[in-house]
Write a structure and sequence with these properties.
Elements: H1 3-8, H2 17-29, E1 44-46, H3 58-64, H4 78-89, E2 109-115, E3 124-129, E4 134-140, H5 144-150, E5 162-169, H6 170-177, H7 181-202, E6 206-210, H8 215-221, E7 228-237
Antiparallel strand pairs: 1-4, 2-3, 2-5, 3-4, 5-7, 6-7
Helix pairs in contact: 3-7, 4-7, 6-7
Length: 240
Amino acid sequence: MTSAALYRQTEMDRTTWPEFRDQVQAFVAAEAVSRPRSYPGYPNWPLERCRPRLWPALEPTLWSRRSAMKLTADLPPRRQLSRLLQFSHGVSGGFHRGPTPSAGGLQALELFLVNFTDGWLPPGLYHYGRSEHCLAQIVAGAERDAWGAMAPSLNLLAGGALLWVVVGDSARVAEKYGERGLRFLILEAGHLMQNLCLMSQRLGYSTVPLGGFFERDIAHAFLLPPDDVVLNAGACGRAV
């Protein structure tokens, strides 16, 4: 079956619309509340709360954004990484809303990262807690060669201190949107990666989205639950 055929399995038409509409309405009537994921009991690194800056304007950031093929391996300072995460995917409003558009306000994306560099943040695999604005260490240690084997496109770049991993909680959207919810997660993953790209550029770094990675290997490495889907990945460092 072609990729287009698989995608069309969740297309909507006049015959499927009533069932989809009724499922959404039933979910809304139940007043379900979606909460960001957290990892209590895991090693935790609090991040700094940052205020929005008024300058520079958005246009220069958009105009100058590029995917650099050579990146430094220096870990961003705590203040810089705090700002990058907060304004890319932090909670900034009621019902855990933030900068990333979310279907139905379900906030079904989780942001993970791999840190390869020793510094104020030890090497390892981390989850970004949106509500707590912190990094929880899921696994200690991270070998670049091992991750290059799981994400072959990472080997096309030189350097890079961090690897972003965008994960969708399919169970969270399926309850409201059924199988079509996966389409929304894919769209949201692109929104979040764009936020990471723009905030990286804004702070003097470069995020390079990657297309070649082994989803199940990455899910296993992060100890993800079965309903989670790995949707997007990107390397981050200062452009050389």
